[in-house]
Specification:
Elements lengths: L3 H12 L4 H17 L10 H13 L5 H18 L24 H9 L3 H13 L3 H5 L6 E2 L4 E4 L8 E4 L5 H19 L9 H6 L19 E2 L6 E2 L5 H14 L9 H14 L4 H8 L4 H4 L1 H6 L16
Antiparallel strand pairs: 1-2, 2-3, 4-5
Helix pairs in contact: 1-2, 2-4, 3-4, 6-11
């Protein structure tokens, strides 16, 4: 059972429209901070304690710099938005982070993994690779987000709470049409029992019958019903990410792709790298991936070796 203070933070985040994922992450780091200050109320601590906590994460727990930044964002939300106690400038040591290149599969490796799968599972991996999706974005796709005629896919509320459009691979269209029909069929069956897909609370208030609409049906609905985490209403959510991880691992092994660490995000990395290798403009790839800054997309040019364009190894000169 959460404390009244943490529950008040939860209500504040929901009032501001934060996602469930963000809510859980922020509350996790706020709890860690409260334990760090010996369970004192955060209003009785401040800038010095926050600096010490963030430095501890870097120096003692050796967290990655991005993890440290998430912890900082959590505490900034608590102090600035909830307690109205701005922290001001914080002088603390950032966690050190070596630049690591993402794992990228070859086209043949991707094809071998996809060939090990069928039906719904195969379509999920085809979309991760063919559209450059994060797994959470893929599983949240609704019927209304798919434009089969234009082969376009709209991603709503992606990372950074941004919307974007990306492309759909032609070879995924037939599987996608079938998934849409199955998603709508499941939705209509649920509607017969007064149940429907989960929808954001604000939207359900504005459009109380949205859960009955084919357009809002999930392409990848969960096999079981659940209570909505915010409203408590019985509904059907989309598949959980763990489902994808469970079927992906044996598929990778059966495809004999054992020398690389493959996870759901590997297919997004492969999408970007293969697009650039095919000559696609980096700005286009940036937009398809939904990156805020092109510098984030540029990591894939390092995978390709494009930053060495026009140069050659001195070893090659020895044979001339």
């Amino acid at each position: 059972m959460s404390s009244p203070f943490l529950e008040s933070l939860r209500r504040e985040m929901r009032l501001r429209g934060y996602s469930i994922r963000t809510e859980k992450t922020y509350l996790h780091w706020i709890r860690q901070y409260i334990y760090f200050i010996n369970k004192r109320h955060p209003k009785d601590a401040g800038q010095d304690e926050v600096k010490s906590f963030l430095s501890m994460l870097a120096n003692d727990r050796h967290v990655a710099v991005n993890t440290q930044k998430v912890a900082l964002n959590s505490l900034v939300f608590m102090y600035h938005k909830a307690l109205n106690m701005p922290l001001g400038e914080l002088d603390f040591s950032l966690a050190t982070k070596q630049r690591t290149l993402p794992t990228v599969l070859s086209a043949s490796e991707v094809a071998r993994i996809i060939d090990q799968l069928t039906g719904r599972n195969q379509l999920i991996i085809m979309l991760l690779y063919g559209s450059g999706l994060r797994v959470s974005e893929c599983l949240r796709i609704r019927v209304k987000d798919v434009d089969l005629q234009r082969r376009a896919l709209t991603i709503h509320d992606g990372k950074g709470r941004k919307d974007r459009q990306t492309l759909i691979g032609e070879s995924a269209l037939n599987n996608l049409k079938e998934a849409i029909e199955q998603g709508i069929s499941r939705q209509r069956e649920d509607n017969l029992h007064g149940i429907g897909c989960s929808v954001p609370p604000a939207l359900s208030r504005k459009y109380p019958n949205a859960y009955k609409s084919d357009a809002w049906a999930f392409i990848f609905p969960s096999s079981s019903l659940c209570n909505h985490p915010m409203t408590g209403t019985l509904c059907r959510h989309h598949l959980h990410e763990t489902v994808v991880r469970r079927f992906l691992k044996p598929a990778v092994q059966q495809a004999d792709v054992t020398r690389k660490r493959v996870n759901c995000h590997t297919f997004r990395h492969s999408f970007a790298t293969h697009m650039l290798a095919a000559g696609t403009d980096i700005r286009t790839v940036q937009e398809l991936l939904g990156h805020n800054d092109v510098s984030t997309t540029q990591i894939y040019t390092h995978v390709l070796g494009r930053h060495y364009a026009g140069t050659s190894s001195p070893l090659d000169a020895l044979s001339q």
